[in-house]
Amino acid sequence: MPVTIRSFAKINLGLCIGAVRPDGFHELRTIYQTIGLYDILKLEVTRGSGIEIHSHDPRVPTDDSNTCYRILDLGMAALKAKGKVVLDIDKRLPVQGGLGGASGNAVAALGALERALKKQLPGTERLRIAAEVGSDLPLFLVGGTILGLGRGEEVYPLPDLPTTLCVLATPEIGVSTPKAFADWDLQVAGSEGPGDTKLTVPARSDKIQEFGRVLSAWLSGGSTKKTGRSSSGVPAKGRGRAETQLLDLVRTGIANDFEKVVFPKYPELRDVKRVLERSGAAYASLSGSGSAVYGLFPSRTKAEQAVRRLEKAGVPARLTTTLTRLEYWKKLSN
User: For residue 84, is pLDDT > 50?
Assistant: First the structure.
């Protein structure tokens, strides 16, 4: 019997790029946040063997280069199962948008496989398989607000940011993550091409440490009982918990390093961020390496206004919300 499951997107609340590791990946620090936009997957295990993937979106690979194919192959082996796995991907999220669409699809496919076979892998085994397939996968086994370390695959649940309005702009631009990393390395090293400038950034180890300090200050400074102020120094009286935490996040100066190399190549993405900020976003940023740009809003009126402004400028935009960990797991199969 087919199993249907949702595959949610993520955004990055800040992303710090560190040194290249011995394995060739960059050391990263980021805060992942799941949001309410999703793809829909339908999976069935039938007689036969192999893995068959279908999608109406021609940009979705249907061979063994698809992350779903790889995780299903590993999942069938780990579950010691036999049969032909047929997966249909109803793609609603943009491809190469920095939203973890392919990674979320893979984790959702593994969950659907477990349900179809009525078998379950231990949590540690799921995380191991997910990390083997890709850096962004493990976050979707946690959900909510998550700290990402290592190359992004080492994940730890953080106290959830309360459900917050999120405007997601998805310009029709595909940004290659490997190319964005290569551009970062070239500019930091000073081997820039014509028209590029060398990035002025602290030593990479210092940047990673600073991100840790910023995160610690944000997480430890949320109490307003004695002072009536949030950790940002902004008066908390009359403000909701979500708005206070958003203001705290803004005051930390947390940012996405990819903006330094992606925005110069795609200035229209910088323009989208400015529209979000001018519309009243408490925080706006590129997600991952892009091309999706999002804004977090304390007011529905301002959020809806931002959507209208972006659409008027020809930029597709949708209003959604962030998902807490509990909401994420409740909505996966509903």
Answer: yes
Domain termination site, one of 160, 180, 203: 160
- How many whole angstroms separate alpha carbon 288 and alpha carbon 264? 16
Q: Which of 10, 91, 207, 260 is catalytic?
A: 10
Is the pTM above the cut of 0.85? Answer: yes
Instruction: Find the CATH number of the domain harbouring 261.
Output: 3.30.70.890
Active site residue 23: no
Residue ending a domain, choose from 135, 160, 185: 160
Q: Clarify whether 10 is annotated catalytic.
A: yes
Taking only Cα atoms into account, the Rg of the chain, rounded to an integer number of angstroms, comes to 20
User: Could you give the percent of the chain with pLDDT greater than 70?
Assistant: 87
Answer yes or no: are the C-beta atoms of 12 and 289 closer than 8 Å: no
Q: Which of 39, 136, 183, 257 is catalytic?
A: 136
| Token representation of residue 231 | 């950790």
pLDDT tens digits for range 138-181: 999 999 999 999 989 999 999 898 899 999 999 988 888 889 99
The encoded tokens of residue 158 equal: 């953080």
Q: How many CB atoms lie within 10 A of CB 320?
A: 19
Which CA distances in Å does 232 have to 153, 208, 228, 236, 276?
A: 30, 21, 11, 10, 21
